[in-house]
Fold this protein.
Amino acid sequence: MANNTETTTPKYKAKDFSSDQDVRWCPGCGDYSILAQVQRTFPEVIETRKENVVWISGIGCSSRFPYYMDTYGFHGIHGRAPILASGVKIANPDLSVWVATGDGDLLSIGGNHFIHACRKNVDIKVVLFNNRIYGLTKGQYSPTSEKGKVTKTTPFGSVDYPFNPISLSLGSDATFVARSIDRNPKHMQEMIKRTGAHKGLAFLEIFQNCNIFNDGAFSVLTEKDTKDDHTLFLENDKPMVFGKNQDKGIKLDGLKPIVVDISNGKYSKDDLWVHNEFSVSPTHAIILAHLDDNKDLPTPVGVFRQYFKETYDGGIANQIKYVKEKKGEGDLEKVLFGGNTWEVD
């Protein structure tokens, strides 16, 4: 009976994932919402004991996250969270491994580690808190800041071009790519659940407001008067409809997306682009990733694409098993002292 108790997953509640640490973000920060939705959804997301859950972070406001989750955690160095998480997962494949990171942390110094974690399809969950600014270091422009952004490091406006995190992850062959918004808790909960359920590298970008250094960066997507006309909620196998009165839609003219009015009889839902998140090709997902490059088009949120292939950690485990079956357990001493060795007198 004692053994059964040890292996059975308890019925957790949100408070079971809340640590005893005081949460230290600026009042009004969007990070509070992300933390709350993670804690609320984890009783459904986590199919193991919470002792088998690990949060890895780098440096930044978002990287305080492991302190506030009552799970195991590791606060790493700047940009290295994806590779640290990869190592944890490879060393112990039974763990559920999550990354909390910011746009400066993941996409600047951490860019190389991120794209290769995507390429390898390590079974980790990467949650990007994107506020388009360096918050912890007090307001410098980041890799996702828009061109022309005036900050402490760009007083006359940035001449840099921003990264598109969704496009980058798709181009790096991530097997699950999604986006949500801090001010939409129900949608965020759904995306966290979908992220946790995916087998392979799952990337979730969350638009997160920094009310101190970049307040209102996503206000057009969150304010009552504007959000419905500027946000496109992606739903698999459903036409792309948006607008306060659900009277607008996205139609593909070749590979060019255009907005059409479906209220006047000229176009109907049958004419619209139907979303397929399981598409074999990433082409349509990449088009969606760049939809809001045009101010006349809405910003998509939801699952852009997901597909399935062997994970890197799974491949390593299978390879080790195969080699052991063929050659036995092996001998570390023979490896260290065999082959080309020499003595220095």
Notes: Residues 1-5 have pLDDT under 50 and may be disordered. The longest strand covers residues 299-306. The domain at 12-217+310-316 is CATH 3.40.50.970 (Rossmann fold). The CA atoms of residues 127 and 204 lie 5 Å apart.
